[in-house]
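Posting this for the archive.
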Amino acid sequence: MILDKTWFIEMIVNGIPVSNNIDIASVFNFVEEMSQKGEYRVAIFGNELAILDDNDNINTTVRLIDDSKAGQSLAFFIPEEETELLAAAKSVGGVVFATVIACNSLGMLDETRFPQLGLILKPMVDNIEENFKSDFV
């Protein structure tokens, strides 16, 4: 369970790594089709995917970002307001999942840039002292 949450956070924070030959229209159309079965609503505006709230307002967008060092990623631009963020969380999670499935199904997901399992689960401290001696005892 912890890996699942970490993986989703990684995709939202750093974007979904995609290949250089991505067809953004195909990916967004795939996500839009999946939205009809899911619990989220999206709209496509050119090269941008908008995630809509219950009032059809745009609360999050997904765009293709090209980083010359890291490569291309589908980045999520989420609201800064805590109340808006919490309201969008379920929809954003659904869109992350659907977008990864779309990219993978269409052969456009760059799995080589996924976070490494060893780095995610590696403890922050290597030498943990088990015999703790308190000065207060």
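The CA atoms of residues 11 and 96 lie 7 Å apart. The helical segments are 2-14, 24-35, 82-105, 117-121.
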